[in-house]
Amino acid sequence: MASDVRGVVVVESGRLESVLARTESDLEAALRRAAVLTRELRRARAAARAGQLKDLRRGLDAAADAAGQVDGATGAARSGYDVDEQQLLDSGAYAKELLAAAAEAGVAMQEEDDRLLCYPSVLRLLPGDLAVEIDHRRERRLRPSEVVRLLQRAQQAGPRFRPQPFLASLLAAYDLVLARQDKSSGAVVKLHDVYGVLTLLPGQTRNYSRQEFARDLYLLDESRERAIRGRRLRLSASTGTRQAGVLTTVARSGQQQRYWGVAFDDEEATA
User: pLDDT tens digits for the chain (271 residues)?
Assistant: First the structure.
């Protein structure tokens, strides 16, 4: 570790995991000494209750010595965890360590702008709150191995996704984009433009990020749901991956998945 100009220790290369492991060990040592203190206090109390003066004096001395050891062990744990948590999250060091911890555990995770993508979850760091947001749920357990464990649990549980309501919203937004751009039914439009319609209200881009939209597109794609109201979904990724507005997410396999355009064809025309 290294100290910054304020003398606060900053974790090099985001090695929060090792700092927490050492602090956990220090606190375990402090707890063992606290157990000794508790035992000596109980002995002294029993001696006082019975009036065993010699044992009482011995017990008080032993308790005082144990209390000093508890104080020393607690102080060591406190000084050992001298980390600038805000700087750790703000600097990007924590995100890098989280990516490394996921890779070590065999969990696919990628960074996309200000989000971390880990099927089926989307993560956002909240440095001001010393928390991470996982699918809009605030999580204050920040130990990298613990966050990866939570993500693994989410993968095992599977996504909570309802294809038809999302498909209906996608169709409504698609038709609005068609009308705006004066295009005929069945024409491919940019998903970036569709996302703009879905997030017209102020603050909606914060509540529903591009990364979440891309994740939902993949989940819809994976569900194989295509038909709605006599129309059939057609997603396009091949021609637009080299153009602006490409949406990226992480697939179940851990591979990067990209989407660019969308169209809804009349089912009668495609029959």
Answer: 444 433 444 445 448 999 999 999 999 999 999 999 999 999 999 999 999 999 999 999 999 999 999 999 999 999 999 889 999 999 999 999 999 999 999 999 999 989 999 999 999 999 999 999 999 999 999 999 999 999 999 999 989 899 999 999 999 999 999 999 999 989 999 999 999 999 998 888 889 999 999 999 999 999 999 999 999 999 987 554 456 789 999 999 999 999 999 999 997 765 5
Q: If 0-12 CB within 10 Å is exposed, 13-18 middle and 19+ buried, where does residue 201 land?
A: exposed
b/e per residue 152-174 (b: at least 16 CB within 10 A): eebbeeebeeebeebbeebbebb
Residue 232 contacts residue 167 (beta carbons within 8 Å): no
CB 188 within 8 A of CB 262: yes
239 with 203: CB under 8 angstroms?
no
Helix, strand, coil abundance in the chain, percent, nearest 5: 55, 20, 25
Q: Which two tokens stand for residue 140?
A: 């204050």
Scanning the structure block, which residue is given the tokens 């698609």? 174
- Copy the structure tokens of residue 88: 């750790």
CA atoms within 13 A on the CB side of 101: 24
Count of CB atoms within 10 A of residue 199's CB? 18
Q: Which amino acid is at 11?
A: V
Q: At which residue do the structure tokens 């309802």 appear?
A: 162
